[in-house]
Design goal:
By secondary structure, the protein is an alpha/beta fold. It has two domains: 2-189, no CATH class; 204-344, no CATH class. The chain contains 14 helices and seven strands. It has helices at 57-62, 66-75, 84-89, 111-125, 144-153, 171-189, 198-208, 215-239, 250-253, 264-282, 292-311, 313-320, 332-339, 341-344; strands spanning 2-7, 27-36, 39-50, 95-104, 130-135, 157-158, 163-167. Strands 1-2-3-4-5-7-6 form a seven-stranded mixed beta sheet, with helices on both faces. Helix 4 links the parallel strand 4 and strand 5. The radius of gyration is 22 Å and the shape is globular. The N and C termini lie far apart (45 Å).
């Protein structure tokens, strides 16, 4: 079953589930049109394979030929079961979403734009038990180079020379999708230009250096981390040593699944990581995560700070008070790049 879906504006996502034919619920395929204004500028094929609804997912996908057959061969054995190497690669995937066959005209063949479209579709068609497959740059599908780069922007990891995989059970893909959306919003804010290209960065550095963590940015990030600290201590006291089930809410429920069975001591140490970062931001100390817990805390803090600047303008204004304005205030994408530079270099 092939359905046509128009994606008219980012970040709005089409109501994809209405296009599903119940008779095809084991393997469902959509052709997602990429549309600007009234003009279709490209398309993307998306196929969802539901392991528990297909009698034999390998056979169903192999019948489609092309990239789907390659995915089926590498992920599923001849009996239709997931191969051990795939089960070791992902946390808890029970179904797959395959993104391929990109055909898009310039200048829309931009990895950031395609990553944004892909993120929208992934949001609507998956939960935290999916593996999302993209072609690797080493393969030769149409539009593969752009798709592979888009997948990398969404934190896909190489599974083989042919496949890149996003594990939706992990926090990194959600954080990556958030960064992609922020980048695209920044472009819209700057009138369609990309403020992150090399020329723009050189101009900015010429008169303002590398200042990204401005006084107002620092104040709002400190506020966000303090909020998270309060929440973490409250939840740690309420939960004690009890493990959390998958899908649990709250701050600790939002952390990677591997942390769900941690005890009260671990949760209190996580809460202290928020406190340590608040302390750094309250002084002239450099802000830099020194351990995995602080990395997770800082990721959450930057995301919460972005939410505050979008949704709580009055509270933000009360926080920044008379602090001087700066052109790079609340530039959370650049802030993330800067603060995690040391840990990724």
């Amino acid at each position: 079953m092939l359905a046509v879906v128009h994606d008219y504006s980012f970040p709005r996502c089409p109501d994809i589930p209405q296009c599903i034919d119940p008779s095809e619920e084991g393997v469902q395929t959509w052709r997602v049109d990429i549309v600007t204004g009234d003009t279709t500028v490209g398309s993307l094929r998306v196929t969802r394979g539901l392991y528990w609804k297909a009698a034999n997912l390998r056979e169903r996908m192999a019948d489609e030929q092309s990239f789907l057959a390659l995915v089926a061969e590498q992920l599923l054995d001849e009996d239709g079961k997931f191969r051990p190497e795939f089960e070791d690669f992902v946390d808890m995937a029970s179904s797959v979403l395959v993104v391929d066959d990109l055909d898009v005209a310039a200048p829309w063949n931009d990895p950031w734009i395609i990553a944004g479209r892909a993120a929208s579709v992934i949001d609507r068609l998956t939960d935290n038990q999916f593996a999302v497959l993209f072609p690797h740059a080493a393969s030769h599908s149409t539009g593969v180079a752009v798709l592979a780069e888009a997948a990398t922007l969404l934190s896909a990891e190489p599974f083989s020379d042919d496949l890149l995989i996003i594990d939706t059970a992990l926090a990194a893909p959600e954080e990556a999708a958030h960064r992609v959306r922020e980048r695209l919003r920044d472009r819209a804010r700057y009138g369609g230009s990309d403020p992150w290209n090399e020329d723009w960065d050189e101009d900015a550095e010429g008169d303002e250096g590398e200042e990204v963590l401005t006084a107002r940015t620092r104040a709002v990030l400190r506020l966000a981390l303090q909020d998270l600290s309060d929440q973490a201590w409250e939840e740690a006291a309420a939960l004690g040593d009890e493990p959390l089930p998958r899908g649990a809410g709250g701050l600790f429920g939002s952390l990677p699944p591997v942390t769900l069975r941690q005890d009260g001591t671990w949760r209190r140490n996580m809460a202290r990581s928020f406190d340590d970062l608040v302390s750094d931001l309250s002084s002239d100390a450099d802000v830099e995560p020194h351990c995995t817990a602080e990395e997770m805390a800082l990721h959450l803090g930057i995301a919460r700070a972005g939410d505050l600047t979008r949704n709580r303008p009055r509270r933000v204004q009360e926080t920044v008070g008379e602090l001087p304005e700066h052109r790079r205030d609340f530039d959370w994408h650049a802030c993330s790049d800067l603060l995690f530079q040391a840990t990724t270099s």
